[in-house]
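Entry 14. Ran structure prediction on the chain below.
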Amino acid sequence: MPEVSLNDFAPPTETGSLGHEKPSEAKIHSFSSPEPEKPEIPQEKKSTPSTKKFIKDLKLNERVNTYFAVKYKRPVKSYARGYMFSIGLSDKTGEIDLTYWGGQDTIKVQEVWSSFETGDVVTVNGNVSEYNDRKKIDVNKESGLVKATYYNIENFVARSKQDPEKMIDLLKQQVSAVSDPHLSALLKAFFEDPKFTENFKHAPAAMYMHHAYIGGLLEHTLHVLQLCASIHRIYPSMSRDLLVTGAVLHDIGKIKEFKVGTSIQVTEEGMLRGHIALGEEMILEKIKEIPEFPQTLKMKVAHMMLSHHGLHEYGSPKTPQFPEAAAVHYADETDSKIDQYVTIKDTTDSRDFRIYTKRLGELYLK
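Output, structure tokens:
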């Protein structure tokens, strides 16, 4: 995508840059299937891992002695030789399933299962295998699976490569340039609140789909602003202030939808309501505090929140019904999709010229 300056919207007070999280950075200026029988796992003396081995670097049939975050747990169940359970592991490079193959003593297997919880970090001493064309880790009672005490949290959730302070400064420049007094008051009600700003600055944009890392929401929001600046330059009759407001606020509900610990998880409120409903509610609560906020303008801002996913089947209660709402939707869709394409191409380690993905289908890698 060619570089576009956000001063298509408003003259900046200073310049900054924002790149994509991937290695080739673009600059932006101020605007469960049945398990097989227990495999034979080579025995190895347990030890405390001195270095972190990342999921993306795991090789088939190698021993692994390192630590991971627990993404989920499945209950203990029986198999041909005893009792077993499965858990999901993660770090900042990906996820992998683990199967613990226990013996006939169900109490001991249950003790291991109960020794850690979702969100904890565990030390894993096992073997990398493959099941249904996916890598997994096998651990048995003679090797090891224990709750870890010491670890570096930075190994588990990725961060944006961009400076969050520079990014938030760029966003605030655009907020301060909004001339409509009611929209300006609405934006400042959020971004002059230190607690909100801090949460927004560090929130992820997703668990998996796009910009799924700390600072991802802010980075994605700036990309949407950049795309809206291009659209406004081509269609200058559109309301610049409404575009900026929609672009900046469209995903604010995600600060309540997700929580970050050793992994990115959805909150109960996020699961039951989602960021679209949460974001509209947050906006309407702020509008109540702004005197004489025009009713039509209130409805248009709320509509931009409700329609930014575009289609009912993608979670939008409404489809976009005026130009600025359509622009925010397509800018949001463009950035989220391109981020997925770039991420997959940049992180796929394959000698093949193509790869199939569930979300995007076949991708060409050369």
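The chain has a mean pLDDT of 85. Will compare against last week's run tomorrow.
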